[in-house]
Predict the structure.
Amino acid sequence: MSPTHGASRPSVAWREPGARRLLGALLLLVVLGLAVRESGADFGRLLDARGLDGARDLLAALLHPDLSPATLALVAGLAGESLLIGLLGTALACLMGGALAVVAARMPRLVDGPREARAPRLLAESLRLCARFVLAIFRAVPELVWAFLFVRIIGLGPGAAVLALGVGYAGAIGKVFAEQCEAADPGPARQLRAAGAGRTAVFLHAVAPQVARPCLAYALFRLECAIRSASILGVVGAGGLGAELELSIRYFQLERLATLLLAIILLVTALEVVSAVLRRARPGLAVALVAGGALVAVLRLPIAWSDLVAPAAVTQARAFAASLFNPALDTAFLLGALDLARVTVAMALAGTLLAALPALLVAPLAARTALGHLADPPRGRHAGRLATVAVLAVARALLQVSRAVPDLVFALLFVLCVGPGPLAGVLAIAVHTFGVLGRLYGDALDDADPRAARALETAGSGRLARLLHAVLPQVAPRLLAFTLYRFEVNVRVAAMVGFVGAGGLGDAIHTAVSLFHLPELAALLLVLLAVVVVIDAVGDALRARAQAAAWG
């Protein structure tokens, strides 16, 4: 027997928790530095004379919005139009995404039921793969690109925005709905299948009842996103607040711009409150309200639905569809597209990492339960309670404003301050993502088990020690998952902000769409699709590994 058999193995310094956290922080700093370098963002421009003067003028104007009756009436009408566009676009996305999800999902009964004949089984699998491919295309192309294409096909107006949201959001909704169907309990489906029920009956009575509530919650979340997006699609002529935003920035009408931004913040905040109430209400009420709003939108929005089948629109649509199967395959062009894709991914990564650290610092201050667990007992001191409430309110307001203003609007503002280029795109992604991650991190902290923090508090530990050693270790996998999810989303965002001069692949897509060079556009979109698929796969693998490590 070896003399060392049974003896405790010496600990390795880098495996200690503190050392691993330090190594992880250093690795993130290195990755951030590489991402900033590859994106081409020059942060020195923030401190030059143009950047400082532009930021000062912009801030001064934003603090003095135009509140004249004429401007308020105009903004109120455009906000109402954006709301109706979001409602109708979400309803259309739910119909399209739900139908594709039923085909795309490998539901439990198809796996565990009686073996079908070869031909029907091959047909079902082929349809499933086709549906997943269509959802991937819908999801990969940013809604602003869809809006630009539909403007070219059917003309200016809210109709292009509705179709862009319907197609773009159908990809995300269909993917989530399909995943929910595949994760459903197979027991009820097996029982109905054994009783001789058909595919439709099994789905309606065994699968749909299980996934209805989570799918409805996600649809309400996408409704919030759709109304936020509807407020910016007008920058390409698709109606709503976006057209007035673009004009205000182009003609330097900053007081009117401040009014428009305030309207967007109020609209998105009010919608979040209503959405939270609807999530707790009966599902039928939420469906009825959204359906009623979509019906009002059909009646009120000036959309000529007959234009969809007009000869000119059909010709344009056929040309675009044909171009997807005949992209530009010139070697030099593809190499250039891949280089722009590299810049786009670097912009998304830099913006995400720049947002994650401040979001992690602010999230404990914005999480009601976590703040209560980390705060020392007030012991009757009213000043302590008031300070806690004040910190909570300020942190939540900061995150709300950052989250409510769309990333494309931030891109427009930063282009105004620091000029066009990747720096504006990175800053826009970082500021908006700060609000999103801060909210998600706060929700995760609120869900943490408070007993570990209370035990450390009893032992005399301070707030920071309780946060680092009792709360964060519980929620670290969720924080990582949220960050990876947001990075995947930001890759699409980085492609979208290029439409307003913020660099990356979006700038080339904008040029191709504007000139209607369809083969080049198809090649660029296919490159974007490949990048999105690869990053989604890497993100899924990292999330699975983090979850496995968390469970030991």
Observations:
- The chain has two domains: 30-62+326-550, 69-323.
- Residues 231 and 241 are 5 Å apart (CA to CA).
